[in-house]
């Protein structure tokens, strides 16, 4: 049985959304990424977008390469991050980099 409202001859369904936890689902690990975290590029994006007030979208012609190291400046919606690299600050999707694990132990 469907419930809805009739407006000028068309059917508009009413949807209610309820969030709940599934008992069998393991808890998601918290992201280690936060503002100031060091990151390393694992895959070069095809296009890059500057994080300036007037962003510029351009093809990545070897500017951002796997192995480049940077630092997170800010978080944007939908797993988009502003990352400060040696060549400037760019908006990168989270799939192109990972958190860089720094060893802060004793050095002989």
UniProtKB/TrEMBL annotation:
Gene Ontology cellular-component terms for this entry are: chloroplast stroma
Q: Which domain of life is it from?
A: Eukaryota
* InterPro entries referenced in this protein's UniProt entry, alphabetically: CRR42-like (IPR021495)
Q: Which GO terms describe its biological process?
A: NADH dehydrogenase complex (plastoquinone) assembly
Short name of one Pfam family? CRR42-like
What name is this protein filed under?
A: Chlororespiratory reduction 42
In which organism is this protein found?
Arabidopsis lyrata subsp. lyrata (Lyre-leaved rock-cress)
């Amino acid at each position: 049985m469907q419930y809805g409202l009739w407006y000028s001859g068309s059917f508009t369904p009413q949807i209610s959304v309820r969030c709940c936890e599934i008992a069998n689902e393991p808890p998601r690990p918290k992201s280690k990424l936060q503002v100031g975290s060091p990151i390393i590029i694992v895959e070069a994006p095809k296009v890059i977008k500057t994080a300036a007030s007037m962003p510029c979208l351009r093809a990545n012609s070897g500017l951002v390469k796997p192995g480049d190291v940077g630092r997170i400046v800010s978080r944007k919606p939908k797993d988009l991050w502003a990352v400060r690299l040696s060549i400037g600050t760019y908006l990168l999707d989270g799939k192109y980099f990972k958190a860089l694990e720094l060893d802060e132990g004793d050095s002989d």
